[in-house]
Give the backbone structure.
Amino acid sequence: MLSSRNKYRSKWWVKPIRFMNYVAFRYWWFIWLLFLTSLLFYFFFCCNMKSSARKYENCAGKATYYKNLKQIDSLMTNCCSCAPDTNRVREKEEILQDTSLNNIDEPNVDPPPPLPPPPNSIPCNNQISANGTNQEHHEQWDLGTNSGTIRYCYDTENIPDKIKIIYDGRVIHDSGMIGTEGEKCFTFNYRYDPSKPRHLDVHVFPSSDSGTKWDYHIDCPR
């Protein structure tokens, strides 16, 4: 059986290692010389490259600085006034206004004629009453051309009747079938507009009782 030393001597990597050990031991001074020479070359090339790069950067920075300085000097020399000419801007705005607005002819638009009251309408500040009639009643009341608050009152006594008041197609009051047993009054805000109707439509739907009585009156706007 081979010993461990003889076993490793048969390996392929034993001879190269032994050769390197022999050279390192016999020519140690040559190895140190190579090491020192490498250090000298390293410091020499590194320092030389840094100094040349610094020199180039300084030169390039100075050239850029002088170039920018010359441009600024040229701009300041050729600049008469750096502030904006507000008078000239104002004149241009006035010219634009004159050409765009003042020269436009406004069309002559006549206001629409006011709507007349319906024919056979009853002027406000009047009263209508009926006793013992069971027929439906409809009247149109002229409110005039003044704006204000309209006051209207009705009394259906003890037999129920229905009163409906309409303005411009809109129901502003519907009493329902009611016996008021006294006068009830309400108000309506009226604003005169020449393009809108100036009258109220009043519908009375009386009871079928032959003894029904009712009356109402409408005041003018005030």
Notes: The helical segments are 4-9, 14-26, 28-78, 86-102. The radius of gyration is 58 Å. The mean pLDDT is 78.
